[in-house]
Write a structure and sequence with these properties.
Tetracycline Repressor, domain 2; mainly alpha; 11 helices
């Protein structure tokens, strides 16, 4: 019996992850998750309590930025911009899903926590000089702005300028914050 419960729970999580990434938080109902999982409509709430709790547990993990941060700090700006532009299809749907769900109470809190623990705090720990925390937060905002322009606004003209040029220029902007040159 326990094995069946774990399989049901896993099926619900798998279906929820797929639907939340495809449709967003508002577009994926608990009923549609249950249907996609092939279970009774009441089971997602039975196993997870609320739609928010299901959403938070179903999301794939945030990318591990640590390898990017551990490299040479002198080219971190360009490396990070290249990472965003050449992402493997995991970061963009996760970013868009979290952004679109950020006004849903616990989801917004989780997003802030992920922002702190996966980007701001690790970057801050690598920065030398004054105002490391402020510079780490500004760097996060700069990276977030690029993702917003590319993935929310869909600024195709930006991409048309050439990936190498964007990496060089936007990377330099980010590098200024990292190096404390502003």
């Amino acid at each position: 019996m326990i094995e069946g419960r774990m399989e049901t729970r896993t099926a619900i999580l798998r279906a929820a992850r797929t639907l939340f990434l495809e449709r967003g938080y508002a577009g994926a109902s608990v009923r549609s998750v249950a249907s996609a999982a092939g279970v009774d409509a009441a089971l997602p709430i039975h196993y997870f309590g609320t739609k928010q709790a299901l959403f938070l547990e179903a999301l794939p993990s945030m990318p591990d930025y640590q390898p990017l941060l551990e490299g040479d700090p002198d080219d971190l700006g360009e490396r990070f911009v290249r990472y965003v532009l050449e992402e493997d299809g995991h970061l963009r749907p996760l970013y868009l899903t979290l952004l679109r769900a950020s006004d849903a109470g616990a989801v917004g809190e989780q997003l802030r926590d992920l922002h702190e623990t996966t980007f701001v705090a690790p970057l801050e720990s690598r920065l030398a000089g004054q105002d490391a925390e402020l510079r780490a937060r500004l760097a996060a905002a700069v990276v977030g702005g690029l993702m917003y322009a590319l993935w929310v606004v869909g600024d195709d003209q930006l991409l048309a300028k050439g990936e190498d040029d964007i990496i060089r220029r936007y990377g330099a902007l980010l590098q200024h914050l990292i190096d404390d040159r502003l």
